[in-house]
Amino acid sequence: MEEEKVNHSVEEEGFDKADQNYDASDIQVLEGLEAVRKRPGMYIGTTGPNGLHHLVWEIIDNSIDEALAGYCDQIIVTINKGNTVTVKDNGRGVPVDIVAKSGLSGVETVFTILHAGGKFGETSGYKVSGGLHGVGASVVNALSDWMEVTVHKNGGKYYIKFGKGGKVTEHLKRIGDTTESGTTVTFKPDPTIFLDTVEFSYDTIRDRVRQMAYLNRGVKLTVIDDRGETPVQETFHYEGGIIEYVKNINMNKGPIMDDIIYCEGFEEVEYLPGKSGKIYCEAAIQYNESYTKTIFSFCNNINTHEGGTHEEGFRLAIQRVINAYAIEKKYLKDGEEKYTVDDIQEGMTAIISVKHPNPQYEGQTKTKLGNTEVRKIVSQVVGESLKRFLYENPKTAILILDKISMASKARMAARTAQENVRRKSGLELTTLPGKLADCSSKNPEECELYIVEGNSAGGSAKNGRDRDTQAVLPLRGKIINVEKARHEKVFDNAEIGNMIVAIGGGVDPQFDVTKIRYHKIVIMTDADVDGSHIRVLLLTFFYRYMRDLITQGYVYIAQPPLYKVDYHGKAYYAYNDEQLEVIKKQLDLKPGYPFQRYKGLGEMDDHQLWDTTLNPKTRKMLRVTLSDAIEAEQVFTDLMGDEVQPRKDFIHKNAKFVKNLDI
Description:
Layout: E1 28-29, H1 41-44, H2 49-69, E2 74-80, E3 84-89, H3 106-112, E4 116-117, H4 136-142, E5 144-153, E6 156-162, E7 168-177, E8 182-189, H5 202-215, E9 220-225, E10 232-236, H6 242-250, E11 261-272, E12 275-287, E13 294-299, E14 302-303, H7 309-328, H8 341-345, E15 348-355, H9 372-392, H10 394-423, H11 426-430, E16 448-453, H12 455-464, E17 470-475, H13 487-492, H14 494-503, E18 520-524, H15 529-545, H16 547-551, E19 555-558, E20 563-567, E21 570-574, H17 577-586, E22 596-597, H18 606-614, E23 621-623, H19 629-640, H20 645-654
Parallel strand pairs: 2-9, 13-15, 16-17, 16-18, 18-19
Antiparallel strand pairs: 1-4, 2-3, 3-8, 5-6, 5-8, 6-7, 9-10, 11-12, 12-15, 13-14, 19-23, 20-21, 20-22
Helix pairs in contact: 2-4, 2-5, 7-9, 12-18
């Protein structure tokens, strides 16, 4: 099927274009800038790499807001030498005239006063906006060593510079004439704030920029890395928007259909007393051969990874329409159980995107949409478009119903398998040799579950652990790859069943993280290829069936030492090659002095395992986090899915980073 062209104008899509006369009267000041540098985590989450890149997202989002307003179609993001970043757009330009309430120019107001911007009030310069909290530009300025802003507006070129912490060092001045319009922001993160690193990742910025291009069809976004000898540059411009986004995500999942089900529409509603506006919705759907769902939702370009009312409306629509169609086509007989949402979403890849003039998010993280009016609008838009697609494409509709029908039968079989798992109690498991050795404490906050590879390491862990707070569950061999297996096969796997019962929260979609028995689920495997494979299999299982374990930070990876050096009756442990060299130097060891490289946890006795890996006072552990669900989805699909080529590509790209290859 030839790619569908969906490059519509703003007016055709139902948007009202924002006011052309975007000036200082549109800037609403809510409160002054306070304590950003003292408590940066309140505004950007962390001062680690994620927080560093969050600065870039805030400035890009301002440019994207100009695109949403209908006045920007080109954005260029450049990582400069010295790890500064420049974001340039061809929007209307930040206002340069005086804001009555602040007494400052619009530029200085936006970049120095928290909660100041053109996205508030009755005379807002924006119809929809991602950065509705209005903290973006001023927070980035506050956390920068310096910042420069150049505005092209009303025939003039204006320039202002800020020093450390957002203090004006060069006041706004007109430095020339221009026929262009737009805003250019360059900033250097403050190394006294970002202590871990001030080095930007090109891959991270490129991936985010590409996502913005998918979500804003017709907008051309370019990312440039100018730090090397030869600049790296990529441009993303998708006239198909989220249609192309779904195709890209599904590329290695084995699509069962060529078509993309595309839904779009809008409705004007009164979202506040006396205040009305158009709420725009679009969704793209395609089925694939996998047994997992891939649903991503956005509101005003913000990834609402906790869902919300737009996802609720989507689920209502697909369940209503699919079941009605299946009954009419006799796929469902009288009295048969209707398809559940989980049946319908198995093997589905979907993007849901809404644009709202006044979105309400639950919490400061903007991860769950709360506007109740959105539910009905999305349900209506998706329902009408999906129904029309099924009737206009009967052959594809049959493929979809076949897929859903198989999922329904598998769900019933999986339900039986799950019930068998539930019948087993934790008490029964503890009596089985080589299975769960539970801890005596019943307080989940202090309890830890070590999932250990093999009985040998399991024996050492059981003997060396703190029996009050540390439980041990040895695995016999490798668990099933849940990325390739149907649900009933997953639940038939004995090792997975043992984990489900031991952890105690059930499985998605009914997984309840408040019922888990341990607040640290620690994966402890050998430092070899098999150990790495088991670790990835476990992470894949947790990601697909207990995702909240990862999103809420309950999953850890144990870091046992790689090397042991015995010297004068004392053991010295090294966790990597660099530490081994430091130990050799500190002990002044002669070349060739013997040391042990651990290939398996079973080589350690219980005392060594306690000293190096189990003791909370001395151990090292990695906490598994989920910063980008879309990127994680791609990684699990590529590395654990049916397609071989993505794994080959991954190996070719990353082979140069491999150390201590075990073959």
